[in-house]
Amino acid sequence: MPDQEIDLQGLPKQVSPPDHWQERSACYGLDPEVFFPTTEEEAGLALSYCGVCPVKAVCLAWALQNGERYGVWGGTTEQQRRRLIRHVA
Asked: How many CA atoms lie within 13 A of 30 on its CB side?
């Protein structure tokens, strides 16, 4: 799965907790299991929801700022976020 270009500088600096924005997310009310795939290859369905999500950048900023290690957040998989963090470090 190729990494998309992510503008880390463009992400929100101050992010409120998910309970402030999750009701506007494309994944709101869906089965959480979809967003915790066991392999990168199984993440496609979750990533498709993220692709049309109005709070995708906020979600990704939250995940990065809070060290979310598991699941799909803000259109990224666990491995993609690890690579982003290594790239910035």
From this structure: 16
Q: By residue range, what is the domain housing residue 78?
A: 18-88
Q: What is the pLDDT of residue 87?
A: 77
Q: Are 11 and 57 in contact (CB under 8 A)?
A: yes
Q: Does residue 9 belong to any structural domain of this protein?
A: no
What is the total residue count of the chain?
89
Phi-psi group of 3: left, alpha or beta (phi > 0 → left; psi -120 to 50 → alpha; rest → beta): beta
Measure the CA angle with vertex 69, ends 3 and 59; round to 5°.
65
- What are the backbone dihedrals phi and psi of residue 4, each rounded to the nearest 5 degrees, phi first? -85, 160
The C-alpha angle 15, 34, 51, rounded to 5 degrees, equals 55
What tens digit of pLDDT does each residue of 31-50 get?
999 999 999 999 999 999 99
* Domain count along the chain: 1
